[in-house]
Amino acid sequence: MKTIIILCLALLIALSFGCSKKKEEAPKTEAVQEEVSKAGATSPTFDVVSKEEVDITTSPYSYEYNGVIYFFATAENMETFKADPAKYIAPPEAPATPPQGQ
Questions:
Q1: b or e along 61-79 (b: 16 or more beta carbons within 10 Å of the residue's beta carbon)?
Q2: pLDDT at 1 over 70
């Protein structure tokens, strides 16, 4: 009986140490690394359709438009964007011009 209790305790201790290990990040595939490096700083890190944050390293949904790679939370959002990109992209702001005649 003592042996069973000792084995159970040893198993419990071993499991508690094994479960407390920090999960390692999944290795990125070459395709994902290339996509992320192409995206650069100009690509938004949120879904322009749903406005939710997107992890660009794991999102399987991306679409390049006018040299910018857009990432999406769902395939449906990506298709919605493809149908009318201008609807979801803010036009560039015009530079401020000083008042004339002063």
A1: bbeeeeeebbbbbbeebbe
A2: yes
Dump pLDDT digits (tens) for 10-47.
Answer: 655 655 655 544 444 445 556 655 655 555 445 778 99
- pLDDT mean over 57-85: 93
Residue 87 dihedral angles phi and psi, to the nearest 5°: -65, -25
Please name the residues in contact with 39: beta carbons below 8 A apart, sequence gap of 6 or more.
56, 62, 69, 71
Residue 8: burial class (beta carbons within 10 Å; 0-12, 13-18, 19+): exposed
- Is the alpha carbon torsion for 73, 78, 84, 85 positive or negative? positive
Rg (CA), the chain: 25
Q: How far is CA 3 from the centre of its chain?
A: 50
Q: The tokens of 94 are what?
A: 């015009």
